[in-house]
Design brief:
The protein is α+β, with helices and mostly antiparallel strands and about 250 residues long. The chain is built from 4 helices and 15 strands. This is SpoOM protein.
Length: about 250
């Protein structure tokens, strides 16, 4: 029995966990529902806690090199202490609301749920389930407005943010657009957007990268003086006018 307990404590013949989601695709802020299935190993085990961690990755610059870091967006307690017998199965339902700042899974951005059993003196069994995160309707409206103005979504990436941009998390998700057609083709090199989303509104930080013109333009570009930051906020009622609002903001600073 002692030998079995030792094997169980190092993860051999121990309890296993499997999280099953009602669906794999969600919108920012949406409620996630599912169940956690636990199957006992070869010996009775006491579990202190069952938890779900919502995890993503972002790029952090260290000594001029970019490194991928993990970030826990939220942690959810599914169950308190319980005992699982040999080969016993338990099913525990759960639900939680995704945070509004969960990254959209476009480009290189990935989001997953990591399930763990907190067992004293044991390697925690873990289970990883990837989620597809769609933009919130307010963010989707901006992407559509940009498309109508001739911008093409070129790149999406989570990167470490300067302190003055940071909110709850150490990073922001950047959406980079290129003018492929329309009134801003030839005027801008690119347009970058960062969204600070809440339930009923979104604050947008725009970085407008003007196209260099002549020697003075090239000089400004070399010193990053060609970039202008613009902030504006909009809500659901502003969506019909959003293409014009975006066009006016870009026109003013380009």
């Amino acid at each position: 029995m002692l030998f079995k307990k030792l094997l169980s404590s190092i993860g051999i013949g121990a309890a296993t966990v499997d999280t099953k989601l009602a669906k794999a695709q969600y919108v920012q802020g949406e409620t996630v529902e599912g169940i956690v299935d636990i199957r006992g190993g070869s010996i009775e085990q006491h579990i202190d806690e069952i938890y779900l961690a919502l995890v993503t990755t972002y790029l952090r610059e260290i000594d001029d090199k970019k490194h991928e870091e993990k970030a826990v967006l939220a942690r959810y307690k599914v169950s308190g202490s319980l005992t699982i017998g040999p080969n016993e199965t338990k099913t525990i339902p759960f639900q939680f609301a995704l945070p509004y700042d969960v990254p959209v899974t476009l480009g290189s951005s990935r989001v997953w749920l990591q399930t763990g059993l907190d067992i004293k003196m044991a390697l925690d069994p873990q289970d990883r389930d990837h989620l597809a995160i769609e933009p919130h309707p307010l963010v989707a409206a901006f992407l559509e407005a940009a498309r109508q103005l001739g911008f093409r979504l070129h790149h999406v990436q989570c990167e470490q943010a300067p302190r003055y941009w940071q909110r709850r998390l150490p990073f922001v998700q950047e959406f980079e657009f290129k003018p492929a057609s329309g009134p801003f083709k030839g005027c801008l090199d690119e347009l970058e957007a960062i969204f600070f989303l809440s339930e009923n509104s979104v604050e947008v930080l725009l970085e407008i990268d003007r196209k260099a013109r002549g020697l003075s333009g090239l000089f400004a570009e070399a010193l990053d003086m060609d970039e202008t930051f613009v902030r504006f906020t909009y809500g659901t009622g502003d969506i019909p006018a959003l293409p014009q609002l975006l066009a006016d903001a870009i026109q003013k600073y380009s």
